[in-house]
Design a protein that fits this description.
It is built from ten helices and ten strands. With 285 residues, it is α/β, with parallel strands linked by helices. The chain folds into two domains: 140 residues, Cobalt-precorrin-4 Transmethylase, domain 1 (3-Layer(aba) Sandwich), CATH 3.40.1010; 122 residues, Methyltransferase, Cobalt-precorrin-4 Transmethylase, Domain 2 (2-Layer Sandwich), CATH 3.30.950. The strands form two sheets. Strands 3-2-4-1-5 form a five-stranded parallel beta sheet, sandwiched between helices. Strand 8 and strand 9 form a beta hairpin. Keywords: Methyltransferase, Porphyrin biosynthesis, S-adenosyl-L-methionine, Transferase. Pfam families: TP_methylase.
Length: 285
């Protein structure tokens, strides 16, 4: 077993976009960090306002469909190598640290190298989108509960589950499913869902660029809307979304511009990982 070093890695949830939704604990940790490894879906304002001025900042992803994203195994290696060189390392992820993220892979890497860590939760996108659209996910009389799902591949939801989901006793919240929305609506309708069930798609929730698209299952499926939703987008389905027009308080931004900037430094990080590997080879020689 490796001897535990004195460094510590903080796995921190940055919230869904609005930098003011960052927790007090996260702010304190960021102000003390030597290194911050951040995902794309983290507001630049968080780094600019709360990071220590001397902190090293590495942007690693994730950006679906882009070669700029750093593969997860290289992120794991980067975290470990930086933790071996610095006392306080922050791994900053959008939303909550443990909901639809690759935190398990990173935890395993830290555990395997006997590196101390702490998990700091953040406000997840479902909570942020719910609050910033005025749609309570479990509003009394509209839903008995809420199911949080994802559907970016067919294996993400078991075929046997669609019939239960189609009852809409619960609100359905789909992460990372904007590109699969036609398939999702088709699966639900085939499973017997009420065709009039409404839903909203919330682009870039809690940010100044928040945009909300409204439809229902039959309208979306039959009209074949040709729309590409900007990342990140969250789908909220169920009767609770009838409340959107009544209680929405944030103006809908129809400009639909990007709030989260694309990545551009992947080659730089590849070089950094290679440098770490070369140092390790020299030390073993």
């Amino acid at each position: 077993m490796n001897v535990r070093n004195t460094s510590k890695v903080y796995l921190v949830g940055a919230g869904p976009g609005d930098p003011e939704l960052l927790t007090v604990k996260a702010v304190k940790i960021l102000s003390q960090a030597d290194v911050i490894i951040t995902d794309r879906l983290v507001s630049n304002a968080i780094i600019e306002e709360y990071a220590h001025p001397d902190a090293l900042i590495y942007a690693v992803g994730k950006q679906g469909g882009s070669n700029a994203s750093v593969p997860q195994h290289e992120i794991n290696e980067l975290i470990v190598k930086l933790a071996q060189k610095h006392k306080t390392v922050v791994r900053l992820k959008g939303g909550d640290i443990a909901l639809f993220s690759n935190v398990l892979d990173e935890l395993q890497a830290l555990h395997d190298h006997n590196i101390s860590y702490e998990i700091v939760p953040g406000i997840t996108a479902a909570s942020g989108a719910s609050a910033y659209t005025g749609v309570p996910l479990t509003a009394r009389g509209f839903a008995q509960g809420v199911k949080i799902l994802t559907y970016y591949t067919e294996s993400a939801v078991e075929e046997s589950s669609w019939k239960e989901l189609a009852t809409f006793e619960d609100t359905l919240v789909f992460y990372m499913s904007g590109k699969s929305l036609h398939t999702v609506t088709s699966k639900l309708l085939d499973a017997g869902a009420d065709a009039s069930i409404p839903f909203i798609v919330v682009e870039q929730a809690t940010t100044p660029e928040q945009y909300v698209f409204q439809s229902n299952l039959s309208e979306f499926f039959n009209n074949g809307f040709d729309i590409t939703f900007k990342s990140p987008s969250l789908v909220i389905m169920g009767r609770v979304t009838e409340l959107y027009e009544r209680f929405a308080w944030l103006p809908n931004n129809s400009k639909r511009e990007h709030y989260f900037k694309p990545l551009n430094n992947y080659p730089e990080l590849i070089q950094l990982v290679n440098d770490f590997q070369n140092e390790a080879n020299v030390s073993r020689a």
